[in-house]
Amino acid sequence: MENVNGLNKIDVNEGDVQPGKNALDESSVTMLDVLEEEKELEDEYAAVLGASDDKVCTYSQGDAVKRQALYSCLTCCPESLNDLTKCAGICLACTYQCHENHELVELYTKRNFRCDCPTERMGSSNKCRLNPGLDQPAVVNQDNVYNQNFQGLYCNCHRPYPDPERTAEEIMLQCAICEDWFHLHHLDGPPNAQKLMEACSEMICGSCMASHEFLRHYTGFALKAVDSIDDSVVDGNATVAAVDLSACEDNDNKLKSDLDKSISEIMNMGEGEATLNDAIEGEPSSKRAKLENDEIEKNEAKQKNMCRRPSDIGDYEKGPTFWGADWRNALCRCASCMQVYRGEKVEYLLDAEDSAKSYEERGKQKAAAESSYEQGIRALASIDRVQQIDVITEYNRMKDRLKDYLQTFVANKKVVTEDDINRFFSEIRNEKNVEIGLPHFCR
């Protein structure tokens, strides 16, 4: 008997069962395995869908949603396979209510998007059930952005995912700007790209780096060589590497020093003359307060307009860049740089909640209530050894029955509906009731 996470993992030896083997067949699993697998699915669901609304269409919110789980419907938009302008994106709620049993492409998450389900992009054959008040399809969402992902294609190789022609594992990363997904070996990255991928928080593809030249000035904050990554911050697959912002802080300190010097010069009106403070002191209180506020605003404006963007681009030439968790904090927010961000439509880079990682964290927090995994673990720990064996045996029996039941749908090429699943479990419950039968009383 081995103690696993405070629970007893049981190996039962009976008859001709080989030592160390479970009494159940090799395809059997322990209840702990079931609960752990369910927890993984719950965590994945929370990360991708937890922060999205599954009951309200995002079109009704009026504006583009900062970030949400999105899907592309190829059933309603078959022409999109050959024409990107015919693509349409639908929110999570509409996949449940309006596009059930349709061929959907899961897009993970996209930023600044408004659901297309009630719009002209879906054509006249579809009517959004979550927006019944619309008498006719609404006009298209002009600010929505579409890429090849809506056609089910990804990367520079323009292949689907998963790729039916590939047998090896596909490692893909999403660009923080264009939001396309790329195979690691197609990124044309440095030799240590695998290590950088494990340590980075976000990746920007080579095409986006070329399109947004201002980013090249910040590559000093990007992860570069293997030996520059602190292995102490690596935590399995969920790696987060902290960006060294010391250079940025040094630059800020210099700016503050220059600002203090400028303020001192402004406040000092010269030898033999009254200082600005003296001048203000002689004014009425209301005017004095106004002069003080004007001076503060002037100083704040001067500090705001001091650009802290690095002047050179270091040794960057081309290709993708890999960034740590805090890299966005290094971006300058002076008036000149803000104009650049607006012109290139990348103001979202200054938003701490824009990143996919931030979205996932919000989803996990939303699903922070006690999970079925935790309930199951506690329930399993509360029963004795014999009951644990009964539970595991019953689960494996149900699993085999369900597998056989679903196989009939595969053979007949039928879609499994919610009613079909409910019917299966109803039959299971009825069988259990028959086995229990009428109560027997000893005389």
TrEMBL record:
Q: Name one GO molecular function term.
A: ubiquitin protein ligase activity
Q: Could you tell me which residues belong to the region Disordered?
A: 1-23, 286-309
Q: What is this protein called?
A: UBR-type domain-containing protein
Q: Name one Pfam family in it.
A: zf-UBR
Annotated Gene Ontology cellular components are: cytoplasm
What SMART domains does the annotation carry?
ZnF_UBR1
Q: Which Gene3D superfamilies match?
A: Zinc/RING finger domain, C3HC4 (zinc finger) (3.30.40.10)
Q: Where is the UBR-type domain?
A: 55-133
Q: Which InterPro entries match?
A: UBR7 (IPR040204), UBR7-like_UBR-box (IPR047506), Znf_FYVE_PHD (IPR011011), Znf_RING/FYVE/PHD (IPR013083), Znf_UBR (IPR003126)
Source lineage: Eukaryota, Metazoa, Ecdysozoa, Arthropoda, Hexapoda
Identify the domain of life.
Eukaryota
Report the gene name. Answer: 106095590
Where on this chain are zinc fingers (UBR-type) annotated? 55-133
**What keywords would UniProt list here?**
Metal-binding, Zinc, Zinc-finger
Keyword DNA damage included in the entry's annotation = no
Family annotation (PANTHER family): E3 UBIQUITIN-PROTEIN LIGASE UBR7, E3 UBIQUITIN-PROTEIN LIGASE UBR7-RELATED
